[in-house]
Known about the structure:
Blueprint: E1 2-10, E2 13-21, E3 30-36, H1 42-52, E4 57-62, H2 74-91, E5 104-105, H3 106-112, E6 119-123, E7 130-131, H4 132-135, E8 142-147, H5 155-163, E9 167-170, H6 178-194
Parallel strand pairs: 3-4, 3-8, 4-5, 6-8, 6-9, 7-9
Antiparallel strand pairs: 1-2
Helix pairs in contact: 1-2, 1-6
Amino acid sequence: MTEPMIEGIEKGLVSLKIRSVKEMPAMDIKLTVACAVPKQSRMDDIVDKLTQLGVDEIIPLETERVVVKIGDKRNERLQRWNRIAESAAEQSCRSTLPHIPGILNMREMIDYTRNSYDLRIIPHLEGKKKPIKSVIDNNYRRILAAIGPEGDFTPEEVSEAVSAGFVPVSLGDCVLRVDTAAVAAAAYLRFAVMT
Length: 195
């Protein structure tokens, strides 16, 4: 983070001088959230909040039950989300931006993340799952949380993820909206591995 000082003002021109540069401490964990794209503009809010929470990578997901179909607006959406991330990073004094690799379907996300994480979790509503706190270990340094759409992941998507090494977890007794679940999971994971 830089600390500028105004050095001079002329018609249509402001001169700045950098007084000091503050190094922001690097996070010692890599946190990724793969999140189903919700309806309305909630993905904008998700990108904003996850950036503020220090998430390193945000993967927008198109799952079977996603209501919003992005179609030919993919590049436009990615550019918008990157601008939102840039603004949120500046506001929260982050020295890095989260990586947004593109909009992936479930299988692409599973393949993309296959060998890059110590722990990959998939919170969902049905079937067998563990409380999220029971799967966290302070030794994990690369963690991914996959957040499903309205109506949850399909049983087939959960099964495919679990077969690929994802751990099925619960975020609690309440059914959360997509945006709330993404923020809750990221905040919990960030806090849990830092303490």
